[in-house]
Amino acid sequence: QKISVTGIKPTGEPHLGNYIGAIRPALDLASEYQAMYFIADYHALTTLRDPELLRHYTRSVAASWIAAGLDPERTLIYRQSDVPETFELNWVMSCLTGKGLMNRAHAYKAARDRNEEAGRSDLDAGVNMGLFNYPLLMAVDILIMNAEVVPVGKDQVQHVEIAADIAGSFNHVYGAGYRFTVPKPLIPDTDNARTLPGVDGRKMSKSYDNTIPLFIPASKLKKLVRRIPTDSTPVEDPKNADDSSVFQILRQFADEEVVEDTRTRLAAGGVGWGVLKDQLFEILDEQLAPMRERYEALVAPGSELDDILAAGAEKARARAGETLAAVRNAVGI
Ligand code: TYM
């Protein structure tokens, strides 16, 4: 069976963007692929330096996968840090990866651009080697499992392409001894709306602090939905649904009929943004409330989550160990 792998970085509570861009589509693959999900806790260290918080977010991401429908009996869930083979392979692959490839990665380039805009003479100011090597470690996460597809949101597509490049380099040099599967990104659909906006209208992202966490209590969810910015079109005027962040979120959660009906009602005028926000809240809460209960039980200390992650670690390590042994042999170690 074909393998799919995807990960989430535990730098905050998982949010609606993670759910739409990664969690939901990845779980949809579970019947077609041998699906693997992991929590990229070592990746989080590039920005997160609070050990308690890292532990909490790691648990929170794991609990979210399961609350959202991952069946740990059938699919693998593990922490990146529980697979130390990753870091040995990381070195091997770093020796085959051109520095220029990392120079071109979006996140690194964005950091340099910010320094340039701020007029700093050192364009690498504030960039640690973890950030620079981030795409390499991500490539290894994917390659060590020999994943064929990687379900991710649009912002991660370049990283999967980099992983494919690195696999190609290895296969070119050592292909006689071992060949990696060359992975492909799997983006939910080509629709732009799949990059979900956050409560300030920009892309929903933990680094912008504009997220709507998946499993907050209903009252907080309502408050955050109310904060999504809208334009000042008067209630009675016609509105273009697709220009609105509220609608962009709604359309990812509502049935097709409801989406079309809402679009028509907005275009007709007479519906204010407040009404649309209440509708969005109702739709979200209806879907998330049952998952929220399961999440809360799992995230609590001493829950069955520890056993689930321990079992996942064992299976993930076994698979990664096979890849690493073959690689060591192929490169002459
Ligand atoms: P992270 O934690 O930033 O995001 C996890 C997943 O959620 C998607 N996503 C979104 N999709 C739609 N709209 C949004 N607003 C939105 N925000 C986030 C992301 O595209 C991603 O799929 N580098 C990864 C973690 C990682 C990984 C891997 C992923 C490490 N190793 C190997 C796949 C395979 C990351 O930072 O994701």
TrEMBL record:
Q: Could you confirm whether the keyword Protein biosynthesis appears in this record?
A: yes
Instruction: Write out the GO MF terms.
Output: ATP binding; tryptophan-tRNA ligase activity
Does the keyword Lyase feature in the UniProt annotation? no
Q: Which domain of life is it from?
A: Bacteria
**Enzyme Commission designation:** 6.1.1.2
GO cellular-component term (any): cytosol
Q: Which UniProt keywords apply?
A: Aminoacyl-tRNA synthetase, ATP-binding, Ligase, Nucleotide-binding, Protein biosynthesis
Gene3D superfamilies assigned to the protein according to its UniProt record, in alphabetical order: HUPs, Tyrosyl-Transfer RNA Synthetase
**GO BP field:** tryptophanyl-tRNA aminoacylation
Q: What's one Pfam family here?
A: tRNA-synt_1b
Q: Which reaction does it catalyse?
A: tRNA(Trp) + L-tryptophan + ATP = L-tryptophyl-tRNA(Trp) + AMP + diphosphate + H(+)
* PANTHER family, per the entry: TRYPTOPHAN--TRNA LIGASE, MITOCHONDRIAL
Write out the similarity annotation: Belongs to the class-I aminoacyl-tRNA synthetase family.
This protein is called what? Tryptophan--tRNA ligase
